[in-house]
Backbone:
């Protein structure tokens, strides 16, 4: 009976690739066709052990990037599953701005297979980067929270209200350099400092661009007493080297 119902569901609601709309087989494990899966660039060594920057051209093993050498980070390490490029980029955009959440089971499956979440072992709290209440009402969901739940299903360490965005900010894509830091100044606070004191915290977000947002979140958490802050994102931007 279950097989029949599953076959009927596949017939009535066929699956298509999230990136290119190619029809998929019955009950696919991933909503990405084989061609699009091949184009997903998973991040692996060599990389920067601090910010996770992928070295696509430079030879050698893991080594700190120039930015991390020149500027101290408030997080101990950041990791991302994929490079932020097509076909993933378009899927993330639809998820974030159009509420297309059908991608989440596939993201969860990727996180289960890839090593990055396991590298964040030992966190006492998993904290999604928060949205301001106004932005949350407009969007209807916090994409970082949904990703945290996809990466760590039914995990009681996920604390959606531990870190608060106290004021609305402009999208970071509108700024460069110091302007990004100014845009986020005093934008976050820890609701319960005693809960993070002497604890390790893992921040989850969708895309690591320059790291300004997660670094500010880490700074606030460290100021509240966290002993270590780590970062996990679905994707990170691709640098030229």
Residues:
């Amino acid at each position: 009976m279950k097989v029949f119902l599953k076959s009927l569901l596949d017939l009535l609601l066929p699956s298509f690739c999230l990136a290119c709309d190619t029809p998929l087989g019955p009950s696919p494990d991933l909503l990405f066709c084989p061609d699009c899966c091949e184009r997903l660039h998973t991040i692996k060594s060599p990389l920067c052990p601090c910010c996770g920057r992928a070295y696509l051209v430079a030879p050698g093993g893991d080594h700190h990037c120039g930015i991390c050498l020149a500027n101290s980070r408030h997080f101990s390490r950041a990791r991302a599953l994929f490079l932020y490029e097509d076909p993933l980029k378009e899927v993330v955009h639809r998820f974030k701005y159009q509420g297309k959440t059908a991608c989440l089971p596939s993201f969860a499956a990727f996180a289960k297979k890839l090593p990055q979440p396991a590298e964040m072992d030992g966190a006492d709290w998993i904290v999604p980067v928060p949205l301001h209440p106004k932005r949350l009402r407009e969007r209807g969901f916090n994409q970082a929270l949904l990703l945290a739940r996809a990466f760590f299903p039914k995990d009681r360490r996920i604390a959606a209200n531990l870190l608060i965005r106290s004021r609305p900010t402009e999208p970071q894509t509108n700024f460069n350099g110091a302007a990004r830091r100014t845009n986020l100044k005093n934008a976050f606070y820890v609701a319960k400092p005693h809960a993070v004191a002497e604890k390790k915290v893992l921040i989850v977000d969708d895309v690591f661009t320059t790291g300004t947002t997660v670094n500010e979140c880490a700074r606030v958490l460290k100021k509240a007493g966290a002993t270590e802050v780590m970062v996990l994102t679905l994707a990170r931007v691709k640098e030229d080297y």
